[in-house]
């Protein structure tokens, strides 16, 4: 059995750890509150842009865009969103696992034809361990997302796709649904899939849509376009794609803080339970030591 000094040292050590995890939980919770507000304000705007784009591209208009043209996949780009730091549960591990599965599907293309765009240090390190040379992405995009940096990455991907440097672009990120639920998503970014754009509204079923949505869809193609549809689409598509990257990085950022808050809460609870167990062990050992001393005193006096 451990001595009283050893148990007391362990109790103090666990208490110190509890202070750290509790403080990290409070910091992550404060960041989550801010990130949650950002993503909740962003999603309706993103959904409306997607709906407008879908309406125009689905209409019977003589519009041709290089971003909707599918071609044989010979080179693929994978944009993966993770965190820069750890201590957020299985958040990064799940992202890396999904990235490995995606790479496995395109393994026949050859490693040189699979480009990894890591948004976050953790996925960057994982890609290097797998033997890839990650593409350069702003290191601050993961923890301090800005629209300017997200738009730069989006335009870079669009330019590569139009130039034929890549034939497909996929993104992997967490979607923040609630404090305890973050859904890992894998989506095709380019070419634009019209059947998926409509379905991005949190998986709403056809039967769950309101009358207003149905009415909007009924008049979806009845637009007055000025100056012409070609110029509107040429301006709308880059805006939607840039906004998509920014929404994904903000979504991932909120999911990271939620995962870290939950992980630190669990760690704090485990520390409390461990302190209780160690305190009981300490009290039992102390009581046993006192009992032994009393027995020695009584035994000595009887002699």
Please explain how this structure is put together.
The structure is a single chain. This protein has 303 residues and is α/β, with parallel strands linked by helices. Helix content is 60%, strand content 10%. The chain has a 4-stranded mixed β-sheet. Helix 1 runs antiparallel to helix 7 and helix 4 packs across helix 7. About 8% of the residues have low confidence.
The tally of strands reads: 4
The neighbouring-strand order within the major sheet is: 2-1-3-4
Ends apart, CA distance between termini? 30 Å
SSE pattern: HEHEHHEEHHH
Name the shape in a single word.
Answer: elongated
As a percent range, the share of helical residues equals: 55-70%
What is Rg? 28 Å
Q: Count every helix, treating DSSP H or I runs of 4 or more residues as helices.
A: 7
Largest sheet: 4 strands, mixed
Mean pLDDT: 85
Low-confidence stretches: 197-219
């Amino acid at each position: 059995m451990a001595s009283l000094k050893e148990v007391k040292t362990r109790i103090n050590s666990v208490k110190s750890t509890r202070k750290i995890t509790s403080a990290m939980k409070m910091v992550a919770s404060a960041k989550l509150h801010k990130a949650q507000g950002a993503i909740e304000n962003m999603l309706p705007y993103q959904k409306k842009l997607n709906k407008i784009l879908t309406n125009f591209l689905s209409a019977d208009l003589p519009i041709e865009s290089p971003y909707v043209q599918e071609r044989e996949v010979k080179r693929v780009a994978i944009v993966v969103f993770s965190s820069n730091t750890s201590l957020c549960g299985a958040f990064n591990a799940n992202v890396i696992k999904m990235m490995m599965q995606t790479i496995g599907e395109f393994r026949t293309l050859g490693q040189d034809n699979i480009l990894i765009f890591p948004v976050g240090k953790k996925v960057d390190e994982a890609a290097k361990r797998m033997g890839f040379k990650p593409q350069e992405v702003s290191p601050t995009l993961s923890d301090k997302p800005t629209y300017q940096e997200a738009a730069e990455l989006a335009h870079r991907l669009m330019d590569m796709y139009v130039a034929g440097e890549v034939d497909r672009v996929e993104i992997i990120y967490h979607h923040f649904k609630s404090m305890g639920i973050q859904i890992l998503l894998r989506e095709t970014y380019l070419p634009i899939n019209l059947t998926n754009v409509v379905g991005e509204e949190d998986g709403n079923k056809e039967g769950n849509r309101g009358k207003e949505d149905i009415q909007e869809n009924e008049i979806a193609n009845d637009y007055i376009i000025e100056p012409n549809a070609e110029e509107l689409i040429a301006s709308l598509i880059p805006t939607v794609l840039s906004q998509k990257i920014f929404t994904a990085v903000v979504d991932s950022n909120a999911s990271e803080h939620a995962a870290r808050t939950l992980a630190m809460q669990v760690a704090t609870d485990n520390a409390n339970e461990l302190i209780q167990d160690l305190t009981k062990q300490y009290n039992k050992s102390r009581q046993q030591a006192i009992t032994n001393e009393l027995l020695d005193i009584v035994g000595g006096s009887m002699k």
